[in-house]
């Protein structure tokens, strides 16, 4: 079985629809066909300095949502990144192989650091893609199911793997991104040219997996649509309607042309109502399962310990090899 690895940050009280369609839904499918490792990447989350109690709470919420979405500890490995110390250790080795200019070209850093003053974003936010490379390479992942925003980071991961292999001998697998068609970039409901994001979307622009039906319905009904009244996909001129069509199509399995035909001549109202219902139908059982899982912290922590054990065994073996190849003196 090919190996997959992917991660999600505990940077909010809930995942959103983009995380679900762009990433987690693929993760659930891939646990059947792949040897799958999925982690809640809390080391990544501290690049923006969260409050410690909030980080701990959000890490549990993130893990609970992953299980609630259908990840099964018997079929895949779900763990918390900081439970496996080798992530940080390999990141340092890779940081030393990365050029400053190369790291400086990452567009996510440019976007995420923009809200800080000049030079005020953390060095961790700058080196984030290199830690991500470590996450992936530690497990020799063949594929990495992610949204389109992670494409550039995957390229860096491949470059670093290649560089390491060239300098120190064949060690790492070159991973390929597995980016889902149509839902690779779900956009913000209020700003349909920007990606829906946990940390930068406004509350009105984001559909949270753990949100109640009332607010979800309201947000879809108030989503920015475009001039005209035709429900047709047109990325250039109708990014808002196109985003909603993609969502509706992904959630119901109905091809977009079929949806366009169904809503012909009906205006946006009926269409939006149906989109809202599809979202609610998908989210409600996940929210209910998440609430149940969060009610038993011991059980949740036990499941995560099992994941950490399995992931740790793979990561330790990789790091042992890396230490030797790099030339670190073995500790006897
Ligand atoms: P943050 O704003 O804190 O970075 P995020 O919403 O970008 O949060 P991440 O935890 O960084 O979420 O990403 C988890 C996964 O979800 C990644 O694979 C990412 O590519 C995917 N993803 C995030 N946003 C979207 C989106 N709008 N559409 C499709 N996939 C997305
Ligand atoms: Mg992100």
UniProtKB/TrEMBL annotation:
Q: Which reaction does it catalyse?
A: tRNA(Trp) + L-tryptophan + ATP = L-tryptophyl-tRNA(Trp) + AMP + diphosphate + H(+)
Top-level taxon of the source organism: Bacteria
Q: Which residues bind ATP?
A: 9-11, 18-19, 147-149, 186, 195-199
Care to name a GO molecular-function term for this sequence?
ATP binding
Q: Which GO terms describe its cellular component?
A: cytosol
Describe the protein's quaternary organization and the partners it interacts with.
Homodimer.
Q: What is this protein called?
A: Tryptophan--tRNA ligase
Source organism of this protein record: Thermocatellispora tengchongensis
């Amino acid at each position: 079985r090919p190996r997959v690895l992917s991660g999600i940050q505990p940077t909010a009280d809930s995942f959103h629809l983009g995380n679900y369609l762009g990433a987690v839904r693929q993760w659930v499918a891939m646990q059947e066909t792949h040897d799958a490792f999925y982690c809640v990447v809390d080391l990544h989350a501290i690049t923006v300095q969260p409050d410690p109690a909030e980080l701990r709470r959000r890490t549990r919420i993130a893990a609970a949502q992953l299980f609630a979405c259908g990840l099964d500890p018997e079929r895949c490995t779900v763990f918390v990144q900081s439970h496996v110390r080798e992530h940080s250790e390999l990141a340092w080795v890779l940081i030393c192989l990365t050029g400053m200019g190369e790291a400086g070209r990452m567009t996510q850093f440019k976007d995420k650091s923009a809200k800080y003053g000049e030079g005020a974003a953390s060095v961790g936010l700058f080196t984030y893609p290199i830690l991500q490379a470590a996450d992936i390479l530690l497990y020799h992942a063949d594929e990495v199911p992610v949204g389109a925003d992670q494409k550039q980071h995957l390229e860096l991961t491949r470059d670093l793997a290649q560089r390491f292999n060239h300098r120190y001998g064949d060690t790492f697998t070159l991973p390929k991104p597995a980016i889902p068609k149509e839902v690779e970039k779900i956009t913000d409901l209020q700003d349909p040219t920007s990606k829906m994001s946990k940390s930068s979307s406004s509350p009105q622009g984001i559909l949270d997996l753990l949100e109640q039906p009332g607010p979800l319905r309201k947000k879809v009904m108030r989503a920015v649509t475009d001039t005209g009244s035709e429900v047709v996909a047109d990325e250039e001129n109708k990014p808002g309607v196109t985003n909603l069509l993609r969502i509706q199509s992904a959630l119901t399995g109905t091809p977009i042309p079929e949806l366009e035909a169904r809503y012909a001549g009906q205006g946006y109202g009926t269409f939006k109502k149906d989109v809202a219902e599809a979202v609610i139908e998908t989210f409600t059982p996940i929210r209910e399962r998440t609430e149940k899982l969060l009610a038993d912290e011991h059980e949740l922590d036990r499941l995560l310990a099992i994941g950490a054990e399995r992931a740790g065994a793979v990561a330790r073996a990789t790091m042992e090899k890396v230490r030797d190849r790099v030339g670190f003196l073995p500790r006897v």
